[in-house]
């Protein structure tokens, strides 16, 4: 439960910071964050080569979403964050959850889904105008 609350507060703080820093390109920031959270798995799993390879493949999977979200269309970022939330659910079945911090899955799922919903809402509003 605490990890979920931390995920909620972290995502809202991220959104607020970049909402008020209007001069920054939001797609670039959120694309870099998406890659950062993907790379975190390598940092956590580097002690187990098999799991680190799975984590590296995951990074390669999310790289096009971040790149295309920055260069082409923010909806790639929305998809990337939603899919990363799914990765957080699937990871314990593919990897070694004991290599991650306690309750990391709850934190990360919450963070990913809230950021994805935020990006979906602001991009839908932008498209409507």
Could you characterize the architecture of this molecule?
It is a single chain. By secondary structure, the protein is an all-alpha fold. The protein has one domain (2-128). It has helices at residues 2-20, 26-45, 49-71, 75-94, 104-128. Helix 1 (2-20) runs parallel beside helix 5 and helix 3 (49-71) runs antiparallel to helix 4.
Keywords:
129 residues; mainly alpha; globular
Instruction: Using the alpha-carbon principal axes, give the shape.
Output: globular
Low-pLDDT windows of residues: none
- Please state the average pLDDT score: 92
Output the radius of gyration. 15 Å
Strand content: under 5%
The number of domains is 1
Total DSSP E strands: 0
Termini separation comes to 38 Å
Q: Helix- and strand-based class?
A: mainly alpha
Roughly how much helix do the residues carry, as a percent range? over 70%
Q: Quickly count the helices.
A: 5
Main sheet: strands, sense, barrel: none
String of helices and strands: HHHHH
């Amino acid at each position: 439960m605490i990890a979920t609350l931390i995920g909620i507060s972290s995502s809202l703080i991220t959104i607020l910071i970049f909402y008020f820093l209007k001069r920054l390109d939001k797609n670039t920031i959120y694309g870099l964050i998406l890659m950062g959270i993907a790379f975190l798995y390598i940092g956590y799993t580097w002690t187990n080569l098999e799991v680190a390879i799975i984590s590296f493949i995951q990074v390669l999977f999310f790289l096009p979403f971040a790149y295309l979200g920055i260069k082409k269309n923010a909806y790639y970022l929305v998809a990337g964050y939603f899919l990363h939330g799914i990765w957080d659910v699937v990871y314990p079945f593919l990897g070694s959850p004991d290599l991650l911090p306690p309750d990391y899955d709850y934190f990360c799922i919450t963070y990913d889904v809230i950021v994805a919903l935020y990006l979906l809402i602001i991009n839908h509003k932008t498209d409507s105008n």
